[in-house]
Amino acid sequence: MGTSKTCRLSLFTWKTVESKDRKEVVPVCPTHGNVKGSSRDFGNGIMFICQEGKTHLLNHCTQQQFEDEREEAIARLHPKAAKAAGAG
Ligand SMILES: [Zn+2]
After folding, report:
1. What does the alpha-carbon distance between residue 18 and residue 71 come to, in Å, rounded to a whole number?
2. Cα 86 to ligand 1 centre (Å)
3. Taking the complete model, does pTM exceed 0.70, yes or no?
4. CB 29 within 8 A of CB 8
């Protein structure tokens, strides 16, 4: 199955996707496991929806919660990269 590792945290399930020359850690649908989701502004936060089949809500949170959980997901999925970034 290669390197398609996911990381489930309290708000979202996260996955590394490669686009062009860079890797990004993004929320994915735990059911469909794809990255067709998209984000939308939601009050003072953001919401993520999955567009596979019948469009459904993954979760919503504040921008700060999103940033915090993404950092945790990056640390779990890419411990070396997270350390390197912190060293700068
Ligand atoms: Zn889905």
Report:
1. 17
2. 33
3. yes
4. no
